[in-house]
Protein 1
Amino acid sequence: KEYIEVKLKETLKKDHFYFGEFYAKNRSVNQSDRLKSNNLAVALSESLINDFSNESPNHLFLNGLIKEENIIEADLTWQKISGCFVADKPYQYLLIGNFDSIDSTLTKGSINSNEYSYAYYFIDDVALNELIKNALAEDIGSGDHSTLSTINTNAEGKAILKIKQDGVLAGMDVAEKIFRFVQPDINFAAFKKDGDEMKFGETAFEVSAKVHTILTCERLVLNTMQRMCGIATLTKKYVDKLSGFKTKLLDTRKTTPNFRLLEKAAVIIGGGKNHRFGLYDMIMLKDNHIDYSGGIEKAISNAYDYVQENNLNLKIEVETRSLEDVKKVMHTGKVNIIMLDNFAPEKIVEALKIIDGKYQTEASGGINLENIESYVATGVDYISSGAVIHQAVSLDLSLKASINLTKGGALPV
């Protein structure tokens, strides 16, 4: 289940009647047994959505419009889904996905054990296309002269992605979108999917396209997938340590500039959850905010008043550095989440007694693979770790060309 989110060219007018249509198909690695479902629908939003429901991690529950009630079978044809609706608000964003609960969704076929663990994520295609455009411009510059000087512009060929290191596969959908950004009519055959365990020697996909397309996209595809695979693999190691406990793993904003979109997608693929995406989608009162404000109570009150006065749908999280801070927050209220920063596990247990379930809790600071289980055992709601992104090591992949070109070839000597 992938959520696609795009910004509309024009804001929808309230109470106006609209017709919409989109096309979908079940992209199956193994068409005979891959899970198929219904309820694929359109949803609308007034603002960019980067937060998932706490009730069902990594799943969006929205009012689905133009819903397809029949199961979308796995075949090679695109199925048109269309309908009419009235916009009850001035919507700016459109999403496509399954917005119903699993219980109310009809399914057909077997469910892989990883089906609900790693493959729920969505990418804002507007931001992704901008990322691809800028990355290609950085790489191509005045031209891919190595390719231009040696390969006929009409030459067509195939290439396969070879896996050279064990781990968690991530970035398959992104790789296809990179190729299609340059050449929309490519043929992309996926042999595995995001979230799958990958082993040395396996082939992830085969792409058939103009050779110029393959060579131009090669490095961006590899850089992206290698980085995403590294993050997803490390995230899964952390998540595996949480097995059997209620605690969920969150990432942070400690990401690579201009690559956050895909790094956070990789965390989801690895089984983690995204914390706030940026400075705009949550208020988090850190130590510097508190110190500059003149104290934790004042910082909280200022933030709460700001949200109310500006009618913002933003959660407020506050960082605490001591049990005394926790007591002050409990007295002040007006927050949604209390972060316990650099608390030892035994101090977290004391803090949780003070909080007594009234607010969600997050442990952060100094938590790694070696000690995470002692933090999980405290019963804290969330553990946040920047390490799953900034300490992840890219995994080894390679894109290998098929020798036999389907058309054209090298330039004549």
Protein 2
Amino acid sequence: MGRLSSEQPGRTHANEASDDSVSGRLDAPPPSLSGKRIGPYRLVLPIAVGGMAQVWTARSVGSGIARPVAIKLVRPEYASDEEYSKMFIDEAMVASAVHHPNVCETYDLGRDQDVLYMVLEWVPGDSLSGLLHVDGAPCPLPLGVAVRIVSDACAGLHAAHEAHDVDGESLGIVHRDVSPPNILISTHGHVKVSDFGIAKARNQLHARTRTGQLKGKLGYVSPEQILGRRLDRRSDVYGMGCVLYVATLAKRPFGSGSAALPRIVQGKFERPSAVDSQYPPALEEIVVRALATSPNERYQTADELRLALEQFLLEAGHLTTHADVAACVRQRLRPARLDLIEAVQSAGKVPSQSLFQDLLALEDPSPSTTHSGREQRTSTRARAVVAD
């Protein structure tokens, strides 16, 4: 295959210099929205804002047990956008069809006057992206913890791929945005796959991706995504291979932004042992197979990848438990994140103005961008505390 230019006719790409960073500032919703009632829920604290939606922690009103949840709201300026409303509904319908301990639960979808909202599981923790930074610098996770997190995420991803409708027909779900910001880890060490905002599935309301569009974070998309070919679950397996590489090395295999695209198509990346001479050969082989350019040469399902990772943990003596993951999460959580968790879990506690400002300064939308010749739009990242 000849060299692929990042400036192909009919396909444009926006730069993503930090497509899974957590250090940027977020144009967040005003704190004055705290306490506002949306349907049967009352907003508490802001989590994130994207191009078209915002996410808040909230509590149900009038119920005996007011558990915290996350609410994703369509931003007012897009409330009348029919295509985005269809995408929002599709996201809720796809996610609600998947029930697994390693997938973020979607509880409800509703409309309060002109506000369309989705109710999600709230996760007291952080995203994998957040955990891969210490004092603002990239830092890999302990090997056993990284492999445990990716293995558990594979279990959730496989459940999404296997989901069926009420008639027993496969939904054909392909996540298309498997990346560190969309893998959430709680303070209890539980891992969940989140954000089906650009997932592909049967019988969706919104228009299918047009030729020339590329959805997902550029450092994690598969070769077939870039080339506009038909996607199946093996594209997500590729994304999980990228996540495994990043989690164990704190470095993307192909870099980021449009410069990553030709490398992805040509399969050019540094083998893990070239980055870290102590990298286990058995784990390197798993990474290399997951990142095979041809889908036929990869693990054919996320469960196959999970089983390979479990076998590695067993044979290498890395018997990592949820308690080990939880200890790592608590060690790496930023002070503002810990304050958020405490504020949300403390029923009736009024969050301070300083906590609002700390949260909004630390959050990052980690956009998943649709790249096309038309106006660029960005979907919300519900981030670490939305679903774990």
Protein 3
Amino acid sequence: MPFRSARAPRCLAAAAVLALLAGCAPQAQKPMPNATTYAPPPAPAADPMVRATQTELIRLGFLRDAADGVLGPRTRAAIQGYQQANGLPADGQPSQRLLGRLKATTAAAATPAWVAPVGNAPAAPAAPTGWVAPVGAAPPPAAAP
């Protein structure tokens, strides 16, 4: 009969456990082949005509934001304000024709009577609700009793 050590069964059992554990070791997670990853939407591209329109609206006092070339809600509101103040159809859309009118308008003739509030600016008492007088503008005439 061959000589067997008392350790032999324990060594074989330990080797088997180690082999099982090695096969069960956590693997690096691989992305699923059909899974889509989230990517934020690309920033809108700056439009040179919109940027020029914004620059003119800032010069004339209809817009207080920086000219970034992106047509957003504040730019549309400023365009509509200019269009309404000058008797144009107020569609809020920039165009070469509008840009030409903006460039031909002098700052003194274009200063709006009221502009949209910025931040938490308090409204002037006689101003329409939610609107404030532009900086340096004369107060509106008092309403007759």
